[in-house]
């Protein structure tokens, strides 16, 4: 899996958890993309070979706008979207699928299932 671009709606505790699990992450807040449109973030991720990790369902449309699986988007569905629930959701998903090996796909992750869309 390419490095991960973590959307600004993902709490810092989750970013820290990802780093401890060996993921190479960059945050939208660490780039010039703070407050940028989803498509702009998608373009940046594609250009820099970054997967996008977000809580925002609209990134599914961004994924569909790219051709030939040029982008990876991981949407987390955690209710409520607290750091603890997000981490539990990611941990549960990691038991079902190796998130480090998924590229060029749209993943929609909840505690109970992982949907992989190509």
Q: Return Rg in Å.
A: 13 Å
By helix and strand content, what is the structural category?
Answer: alpha/beta
Number of discrete helical segments: 4
Largest sheet: 6 strands, mixed
* Cα end-to-end separation: 15 Å
Helix content: 25-40%
Oligomer: single chain
| CATH fold annotation | Rossmann fold
Instruction: Please tell me what the overall shape is.
Output: globular
Give the low-confidence spans: none
- In total, the number of domains comes to 1
The CATH architecture is 3-Layer(aba) Sandwich
What is the CATH top level name? Alpha Beta
Order of helices and strands: EHEHEHEHEE
Main sheet: strand order: 2-1-3-4-5-6
Number of strands: 6
Q: What's the overall average pLDDT, rounded?
A: 91
Amount of beta strand: 15-25%
Commentary on this structure:
With 118 residues, this protein is α/β, with parallel strands linked by helices. The protein has a single domain (3-117), classed as Rossmann fold. The chain has helices at 12-20, 38-47, 59-65, 83-96; strands at residues 3-6, 25-27, 50-54, 73-76, 106-109, 114-117. Strands 2-1-3-4-5-6 form a 6-stranded mixed β-sheet, sandwiched between helices. Helix 1 (12-20) runs parallel beside helix 4. 29% of the residues are buried.
Write the layout of secondary structure elements.
Elements (H helix, E strand, L loop, with lengths): L2 E4 L5 H9 L4 E3 L10 H10 L2 E5 L4 H7 L7 E4 L6 H14 L9 E4 L4 E4 L1
Parallel strand pairs: 1-2, 1-3, 3-4, 4-5
Antiparallel strand pairs: 5-6
Helix pairs in contact: 1-4
């Amino acid at each position: 899996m390419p490095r991960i671009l973590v959307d600004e709606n993902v709490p810092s505790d989750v970013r820290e958890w990802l780093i401890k699990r060996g993921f190479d992450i960059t945050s939208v807040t660490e780039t010039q993309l703070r407050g940028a449109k989803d498509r702009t973030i998608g373009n940046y991720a594609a250009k820099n070979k970054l997967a996008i990790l977000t809580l925002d369902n609209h990134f599914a449309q961004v994924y569909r706008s790219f051709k030939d699986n040029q982008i990876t988007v991981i949407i987390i569905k955690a209710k409520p979207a607290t750091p603890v629930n997000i981490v539990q959701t990611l941990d549960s998903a990691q038991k079902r699928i190796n998130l480090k090996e998924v590229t060029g796909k749209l993943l929609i992750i909840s505690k109970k299932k992982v949907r992989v869309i190509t």
